[in-house]
Amino acid sequence: MTQQAGDSGVGTGRLAGKAGIVTGAASRVGAGIAHRLVADGARLCLADMDAARGAAMAAELGDAAFFMQTDLQIDGSIQQCVREAVDQFGGLDLLVNGACTYRDGGIAAERADWLVACNINLVGAALTIRAAAPEMAARGGGSIVNIASIAGKVAMAGRWLYPSTKAALLQLTRCAATDLAADRIRVNSVSPGWTWSHLMEDLSGGDRAVIDGLAADYHLQGRTSTSEEVAAVVAFLCSDDAACVTGADYAADGGYSALGPERALPAMRDQLVAAGRIAE
Ligand SMILES: NC(=O)c1ccc[n+]([C@@H]2O[C@H](COP(=O)([O-])OP(=O)(O)OC[C@H]3O[C@@H](n4cnc5c(N)ncnc54)[C@H](O)[C@@H]3O)[C@@H](O)[C@H]2O)c1
Questions:
Q1: What InterPro entries has UniProt attached to this entry (predicted)?
Q2: d(Cα 146, Cα 144) in Å, to the nearest integer?
């Protein structure tokens, strides 16, 4: 832990008085979520394996957040994270499961690859919910948001692990919502489309237009989303504004999932014209 929350971190927005954990908080998406939840008044434990980025995030957020280096592959690390958050805040109201690995390899992936992908993306989220839920129940309820993906709903060439774990996370969301409803804990997921990330920044040399150009054909909005835009949906689900929403998945994907198979239509039309089957 590099920084501790102080009493002065209490906010005044719609999440005022709420305390939460955001896993994967060192990622760009996680950072966006953390900034938004703090802006809405929450105090946060930022949980991630990446100590350098995590500590930097906590420093940005000041007294409203502290960083806890956490490895979701280790039960004791998850439990220590939840314990520390409860010690710091006196309880827990919110959990955002945002950590992930993109480790894949498709058909070539070995068992070890599968186990790591499932361990972080699915089991890590499930065991964090398991550790956090009793603390939320003790507060009279809470809200859990799992960060899923468009990849959990459609197939992607060459990728088996990441999409499969995200599909399982969508089902975990429904299962957990079912079992935790009696404790007034809502469990939902947000499925982003392409969202500007550290990886995209590295691949494009920081040129957002390059990635937006690639995204344009697959997203109605013709661009990648920002982490702030995804975070706004997460903040809604965390808040009492979503009091009747549980077991649901919210697409924060710029219209990716609305396109359906007809996204291939222009290419198909070109082929039919070229084959002389239809007029130009
Ligand atoms: N960027 C996108 O286009 C996109 C699209 C759909 C969904 N998402 C989802 O958004 C979230 C963030 O995505 P991103 O692209 O910013 O990813 P990223 O790879 O930049 O971040 C993942 C974070 O998880 C952390 N992490 C990995 N293994 C961990 C472990 N064992 N314990 C604790 N932390 C661990 C990493 O340190 C990192 O900070 C993920 O859940 C991802 O699936 C992203």
A1: NAD(P)-bd_dom_sf (IPR036291), Sc_DH/Rdtase_CS (IPR020904), SDR_fam (IPR002347)
A2: 7
Contact criterion met (CB below 8 Å) for 8 and 43:
no
- Residue 107 to residue 266: CA distance in whole angstroms: 30
Distance of CA 160 to the CA centre of its chain: 19
**Nearest protein Cα to ligand 1, atom 13:** 29
Active site includes 162? Answer: yes
Report d(CA 219, CA 58) in Å as an integer.
32
Indicate the SS3 state at residue 184: coil
Domain 7-274, CATH? 3.40.50.720
The count of residues in the chain is 280
CA 19 to chain centre: 18
- Tell me the two tokens of residue 168: 């399982």
Q: Which residues line ligand 1 (CB under 6 A)?
A: 23-24, 26-30, 48-50, 70-73, 98-102, 120, 147, 149, 192, 194-195, 197-199
Centre of ligand 1 from the C-alpha of residue 279, in Å: 47
Q: Token pair 């129940």 is at which residue?
A: 137
pLDDT in tens, 17-68: 999 999 999 999 999 999 999 999 999 999 999 999 999 999 999 999 999 9
Amino acid at 118: C
